Amino acid sequence: MGRAPPFLAREGYRRRRLADMARLLPLVGLALFLMPALDARDGLSAPMLIYLFGAWAGLITVSAILARRLCRSGAMDDSDGPQAEGP
């Protein structure tokens, strides 16, 4: 009896991990934006605003990189999901 290999296909595994990172990114952003609120005793200061802008720019950059890699790997097409039948 032949057994299936214990490892997943490399491309499929990478595509799923990229999709997992894309799903986790909003939670990372929430944590980054709430961090200054934990330390804000006297309101927002200039360093906190610089931090928030840097976190915002970093999230945009990371999401653009993830979107480009997901589109390139083909994870955004609906080939895995149910097919819609047309008229």
* Secondary-structure-derived class: mainly alpha
Q: Which segments are poorly predicted (pLDDT under 50) over 5 or more consecutive residues?
A: none
What characteristic shape results from the CA principal axes? elongated
Strand content: under 5%
- DSSP helix fraction: 55-70%
Q: How many strands, what sense, and barrel or not for the largest sheet?
A: none
Order of helices and strands: HH
* Number of E strands: 0
Q: Determine the number of helices (DSSP H or I, runs of at least 4 residues).
A: 2
From the N-terminal CA to the C-terminal CA, the straight-line distance is 45 Å
Instruction: Give Rg in angstroms.
Output: 20 Å
Transmembrane segments: 50-67
Keywords: Membrane, Transmembrane, Transmembrane helix
What does this structure look like?
With 87 residues, the chain is mainly α. It has a domain at 46-74. 67% of the residues lie in helices and 0% in strands. The chain has 2 helices and no strands. Helix 1 (10-39) packs antiparallel against helix 2. The termini are far apart.
